[in-house]
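[job 4471] stage=fold_predict status=RUNNING
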Amino acid sequence: MSRTILVEYHTSWARIRIARPEKRNALDRGTRRALGTAIADLEPGTRAVVLTGTDTSFCAGLDLKERATEIAAGRSDTAGEEAIALNMVMRSHPAVFIAGVNGLALGGGMTLVNSCDLAIAAEDAEFGTPEISFATYASMAGPTARLLLNRKRAGWLLLTGERISASTAHNWGLVNEVVTADHLEARCAELAARIAGFDATALSMIKATLDAVPGAATDWREVLIYGQGVNAAIRNARGRPGDAA
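[job 4471] inference complete, writing C-alpha cells
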C-alpha cells in the first residue's frame, strides 16, 4: 500500500486514511491511484468503510501544483479522469462509505464527502469550492453538490468561493452529524460497526436505491413498486423467495 493511504481492518469494516498532511492531504496522482486501489481491493466481507484524513485536513482536493507542473511539461492532463474513476469505484462498491471529515474538505475533497453514503464532521471542519478564485469551475464538487443541495446553496459555494462551517454543512444536508474533534474517530467507528452488523446483501441493495430514487424513479406508484422489487431481490439473493414483503 502507498505510504499516503493507510488501511485499518476491523470486524467487517475498515478505515481508510489519507496520510499526506504536509500537502493538506491533497490528491496527487500516486495518492489518487492508491486510494482507488485500496477501495477496489478491500477484503471480502467489508460492509462499511470510514474514509478520513490526517491532522487538520480531510482532503484539500487535487494536487494543483503537480497538475500544473505536468501540464507545463507537456504531459497529458488525466487528473480529472482519474478523479472520476476514484469516485466511481467508491460509489459502485457494495460497502457503505462514511466520510469522517476531520478538517478541511475543499474541491475534490468535498467531492469525496459528496460521494460517500454518510458523513460525520468534526465541529471545526470546513467545506468549500475555491475554484472560482482561479477562474475555473469546481467540475466535480460543483455538480455533485448541486445533486445534494438546492440552487441557492450550491450557488453560494460555487459563486462566492467562501467556505462553510460544519454546522452549516449539517444544516444544508451535506453531512449527517457534527461531533467534537476528539470524538470523531470513535463516533465513526461506532457507526461503521453498527452498519457492519447488518446483512451484507441488504446493505448493498439499499445503498443502490439511494441513487435509483429519485434518480430513475420519481412517480409515487413507480417508487412503491420499485421498493417491493428491491425486497424481492434481497430475498432471492439470500435464498428466501417466500418471505413476506
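[job 4471] summary: The two ends are 43 Å apart (CA to CA).
[job 4471] exit 0
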